[in-house]
Amino acid sequence: MKLYLECIPCFIRQALEAINMFTDDQELKEKIMREVLRATSTFDAESIGLMTNAKIQRILKKYAHSGDPYKKEKKKMNLICMDMADEVTNIIEDSERPFETALRIAIGGNIIDFGQGNNIEAGKIRGAIKQALGQELDNSTISRLKEEIGKAKKILYIGDNTGEIVFDRIFIEKFFPVDRTVFAVRGGPVMNDATIEDAQMTGMADTVKVISTGIDMAGALLPCCSEEFMKEYKEADVIISKGMGNYEALSNEDKNIFFLMKVKCPVIEDSLKGKYRLGDILVDDLEYLKNKNIEETVR
Predict the structure, then answer these.
(1) I need a labelling partner for 139 at 20 to 30 A (CA). Which of 43, 104, 216, 232 fits?
(2) Tens digit of each residue's pLDDT (9 = 90 or more) over 262-292
(3) Regarding the domain delimited by 71-298, which CATH topology (the fold level of the hierarchy) does it fall under?
(4) Three-state DSSP state, 2
């Protein structure tokens, strides 16, 4: 998915929020922001937005005390969701359709996205999960996903955010063949996305094999990913792509990919060609998008 110009002010807002998280020094804030603005001004409108965002995030990491502006908040999100694990497990076990319920909870956790603002607390997460349990989803796609998981020889589940990874783990533990499932995290700190450290903290690393994409980028942009990741990607019969960043990176790829996410951004809404609206959750292989793009190219 190519960069939208509307992404640029959003990247700058994200940078300022992150700067305010790790310093009160006004001179340092101004210095970092000038550097961020210079980097942002070199954007390539024909490239994917993840590339510009990665440049900005690397500047922030250079100045943050721990090398990760979001480190404290990421741990907080993990702890909040770990405290909710028994609660959501009970919801799943009491459900008449436990697979679908676990799936909906995992997607509801996609609200934990500091790209959309960092004012996320337990109440907001619970509210997003409650909403996800009642939102419209395509039952035929859910059934097909369940069938594909059951027959797959290898599954690659590409994760997204901290906190959210707890709900992914519960979904995987209950409904995936754990010996044939690989979970991918980011290759280094980027915003509040999950890394190997988070997979270890939340028990994901004790559940399935965990690898990283090999890149500190908020999406699995294949030309940049490690050999290890690409091997798992090519061998996978089914790929689960979680969140908007992975959607940006993979929406044009020719693989058996199921996209799981909440639509939190007008740019993503626009890219979905009218099938989904802001606030919707989705489970979709998005084949219709490729057909739409072909039709538009022909016209």
Answers:
(1) 232
(2) 999 999 999 999 999 999 999 999 988 776 6
(3) Rossmann fold (3.40.50)
(4) strand
